[in-house]
Amino acid sequence: MSTDKNITSVLKETRQFPPQTEFVAQANVNAAERERLAEWAKSDPDGFWAEQGRSLHWFKPWDAVLDWTNVPHAKWFVGGTINASFNCLDRHLAARGNKAAIVWEGEPGDTRTLTYQQLHREVCKFANALKGLGVGKGDRVTIYMPMVPETAVAMLACARIGAMHSVVFGGFSADAVADRNNDAQSKLVITADGGWRRGKVVPLKANVDAALEKSPSVQKCVVLNRCNTAVEMKPGRDVWWHDLVADASADCPAEELDSEHPLFILYTSGSTGKPKGVLHTTGGYLLGTSLTHKWVFDIKEDDVYWCTADVGWITGHSYIVYGPLCNGATVVMYEGAPNQPREDRFWEIVAKYKVTILYTAPTAIRAFIKWGDQHPKAHDLSSLRLLGSVGEPINPEAWIWYHNVIGGGRCPIVDTWWQTETGAIMISPLPGAVATKPGSATKPLPGIQAEVVDKQGHPVPAGSGGFLVVKRPWPSMMRTIYGDDERYKATYWSNYPGVYFTADGARQDEDGYIWVMGRVDDVLNVSGHRLSTMEVESALVQHPKVAEAAVVGRPDDLKGEGIVCFVTLKQGTNPSDELKTELKAHVVHNIGALARPDDVRFSETLPKTRSGKIMRRFLRDIAAGRQTTGDATTLEDFAVLAKLREDDE
Ligand code: WTA
């Protein structure tokens, strides 16, 4: 095994990609401008953010840029009034009314384009329909939809009337939908009969029916007919989308909302079994997403921008809906799987719509590599000018492939680090300003004070591992965990008083570049999706044959991390392969397909410390042992993260 040699070679990894001259010449931000912005943000943060904030439309200007007196509860653009839907739609009507806002392609190949004018009309009608159903300012609305334009319409309609949306990823199970309905006390659920995924219909409405048996707060359910499948419509509760909007007025002025009015809740996994409802508010979030979209993606009027994330995740919220639409961009949206009908679907879409900017995830890139170069090579990808990556660390090999095979060696890659909680991109190269290094998200954006520190909060020396923190509040930061402010304070602000704790391990090199390694808490990153080990454990112990369970991640060449479950069975139960299959299916049923365990191992006992804590580090080593990857960065990071966690003391 040549691990040592590999590690040495990775540490010596010196490949650097300075921005190319032609790109710099047309860039929204060049190196000098980036420097100026960063310096300004440091010396006069309020003045800096005030100037940025003026890029939005405000009904009434703010009195103060930031109120950080009640730490850790920031208020941004205090006293200002604004509407996110107005900023994403009405503001563009005069100059961009006939410009394509959403260019959509369904998995079966059906297509639709909505101009800003048309999107505005759909949103206004649906917003009036929502009002007709009794939804008003501050109410919570669950959106459990496929990737169709109506999902964006539903979100923007909520924003228009000041209702908070809670989008639940369409891959989650009925139980997960019910939990989120109950936690948010949602009044309404918006769904579809189904959505297309790998040639099959995902039965969204049937899942909602099961969820609503356990969601007493939900009074009504709006159903979009996407797939023409037969669904049960419960009289008095369920209503078709097309019936609702048929007679709805297209006149719906946007509500004037306080800058800090809640825009949405988005559930994400934390260290415990219970997902956290991350709360974002209006003014700061909209500024963070639109500004970073302009800077990082270098967006121009003629760009065709495609973010391949699902709207059910923060990436979809910030970089399919709010950021790009606020900037008046043309957004491509695709409903289905990347390998339906063939493994070249993405490249077909890029060529067909002449996509100029592509934003996707390392797990997808690794799948493309596996599927073979012949798929991208069969299509004309020359329209592409910029590539992005998000969701997990990108291994240098995948980066280089993305650069060469997809980007033709000419497109800068922006590796963007951020979280559901941060709302917008925090660490990323600006493509016309910062030389990239494969595997590093490079440097914090101007105005973002991210650092790598030790346990005491002191900066670590170059090359050493530490914890990634953010030392100053920023506009798009989360405001609290919905309904659980104590957990908000404990999770993010108790390690370092007044400093935001990301729960990521990272190191900084001699050039100040940040290399994010992964989570130091019990959150797994499976194909770029966050999952808590405890969520999976609590699903397992709900099975009648399971006595105890411990779940850990292990490095996985394709998914980043795979899920390994160690299970002790109740007395009298015999381990078997059938039971393994049954337990995997049980977890999928409880949480969703994204949580399907890669491996279930039966064990008579689980290794514990004297105080009774499960020795996770030990289990992680065992889990990784059988299938370690050849990728030295992954192995090295695995070791560093284990040390940072120090969880078995
Ligand atoms: C990880 C997704 C390395 C990280 C936007 C973070 C990354 C978690 C990167 C948040 C990146 C995201 N490089 N790691 N470019 N982007 N992560 O909330 O561990 O779904 O804490 O937000 O993903 O995941 P979330």
UniProtKB/TrEMBL annotation:
Claim: Magnesium is one of the keywords in the record: yes
Protein name, per record: Acetyl-coenzyme A synthetase
Modified residue annotations for N6-acetyllysine: 613
Catalytic activity: acetate + ATP + CoA = acetyl-CoA + AMP + diphosphate
SUPFAM superfamilies the record matches: Acetyl-CoA synthetase-like (SSF56801)
Organism from which the protein derives: Gemmata obscuriglobus
Family: Belongs to the ATP-dependent AMP-binding enzyme family.
Domain of life: Bacteria
NCBIfam families in the cross-refs: Ac_CoA_lig_AcsA, PRK00174.1
Acetyl-coenzyme A synthetase N-terminal domain: residues covered: 36-88
Summary of the function given for this chain in its UniProt record: Catalyzes the conversion of acetate into acetyl-CoA (AcCoA), an essential intermediate at the junction of anabolic and catabolic pathways. AcsA undergoes a two-step reaction. In the first half reaction, AcsA combines acetate with ATP to form acetyl-adenylate (AcAMP) intermediate. In the second half reaction, it can then transfer the acetyl group from AcAMP to the sulfhydryl group of CoA, forming the product AcCoA.
CDD domains: ACS
EC number(s) from the headed UniProt entry: 6.2.1.1
Residues in coiled coil: none
GO molecular function: acetate-CoA ligase activity; AMP binding; ATP binding; metal ion binding
Domain AMP-binding enzyme C-terminal: 535-613
Obligatory cofactor(s): Mg(2+)
InterPro entries on file: Ac_CoA_lig, ACAS_N, AMP-bd_C, AMP-bd_C_sf, AMP-binding_CS, AMP-dep_synth/lig_dom, ANL_N_sf
Keyword Ligase: yes
